[in-house]
Amino acid sequence: MQTAIATDIETLLKAENLKKGFTLHTQNGIHLSVLSNLSLVVKAGECVALTGASGSGKSTLMRCLYGNYRVDSGSIWVKHGGDWVDLTRTEPHQLLAIRQTTIGYVSQFLRVIPRVPALDVAAEPLLELGMELNEAREKAAQMFARLNLPERLWSVSPTTFSGGEKQRVNIARALLVNYPILLLDEPTSALDATNASVVIGLLQECKAAGCAIIGIFHDEEVLTQVCDRQLSFGSSH
Known about the structure:
Blueprint: E1 11-24, E2 30-43, E3 47-51, H1 58-66, E4 73-80, E5 83-86, H2 92-101, E6 103-106, H3 118-128, H4 133-146, H5 163-175, E7 181-185, H6 193-208, E8 212-216, H7 220-226, E9 229-232
Parallel strand pairs: 3-8, 3-9, 6-7, 7-8
Antiparallel strand pairs: 1-2, 1-4, 4-5
């Protein structure tokens, strides 16, 4: 049983004293320190933007918060099903459960299985939660319509989609579940102004519903309209 942490009722994620580095074995074992004593608290209905130069550690932090990278030291506490869980000490099966219901992640790239229709790609997380196929597809269709994804593409595999079309499938897939915590890696990078505006509206709805958002946003419009504060990273090491 992991020890509970002292925090207020609105906090959904609390990272403390994170350290993360990489050893470059192909370059004489050089060690690069990327995150050093980084701490972060994010509350329900709050959006924190990670800002700083390329290579300063923003994406590394995102991957640590999603459990793709294990930190060298520190803790990442998330509110999962009413309990506090330290991601740095979770077993693989527990991490999968957290990703199913608690933490959603929109990366810049959509990984898809060939021949699976876009509608089913977006509906998959709902099916994993036990929703009936027809209902999951209907919810995915409604989200696709909001995101202006042409209906002719819904039954097609996203492997041939443009970058902006793939990004909208990725966004739909994450927003359908109503995760308490959302990690967003440049969610509007491939979108035109009209569709970026739609995504801004959707993210504002997520915040209003109590979602805690952490993101990398290079779009000033998103920063201005969605983010409450920024966590700045220094230059790369």
